[in-house]
Amino acid sequence: xxxxxxxxxxxxxxxxxxxxxxxxxxxxxxxxQPEDVVxxxxxxxxxxxxxxxxxxxxxxxxxxSLREVVPVGGSSGPEPRIDDGANVIVVDGHPIKVVMSxxxxxxxxxxxxxxxxxxxGLMAQATPRxxxxxxxxxxxxxxxxxxxxxxxxxxxxxxxxxxxxxxERRIATLLNWPLDHGEGLQILRYRPGAQYKPHNDYxxxxxxxxxxxxxxxxxxxxxxxxxxxxxQQGGATVFPDVGLEVAPVRGSAVFFSYDRPHAITKTxxxxxxxxxxxxxxxTKWMRQGVFV
Length: 292
Known about the structure:
By secondary structure, this protein is of the alpha+beta class.
């Protein structure tokens, strides 16, 4: 068990650094006993009172963050109105079927969220602007091309075209979440062999770039993945923690939410490799607050 080192001065003054806090949390998550963590810190030169304070304060703050529910609009996050057992939700005359509902993780699968014409329209509008997909880099707050994501993609501005505006308003009503609390639609095309390895959509609060990212609307609290076509083989959306696989079927969608940025939500997910044909999806991410 290696620990962050301390520097000895004539008058020793030691501070609890972000590095030490992250290390303390990692040891606790790995199952180490607090007294063993404190001993390891002392062996690396940390004073006992500093080590005890670091362990106590770090774990207390971390546990509090896990219990915290997103305080937005009196709700913990986006949620379709299906508590009454509804099998169909009608939004502005458009019937959307509820295929499956799971509580943990919070996952709802919809059929017929998009029409065939809307799917074709999204693909046509996106095609001229497709480039290699990037992922958010929580270490810097920017974005980067990553080997885990092998797809082409692009983003629409919110309400950029009449088609985009209509679909976004339908989503806002369906999920009971304000229109301006959503990012612009992202369109992705996965060619044969392309995939997106399992990941979380929320921004890791322990990463230095996260404060910059959440300035634009707070944490992500929900994801809606809409399938614009049906690939010949492969391309399922997978949730490894619960053994769930959602087949990509044209016009259908999978919604999942996470009321805190932590693995306890069991929303780790990925896009399985496309084995034949292509897979096209449109993704809408929802934020805590107004996304600008």
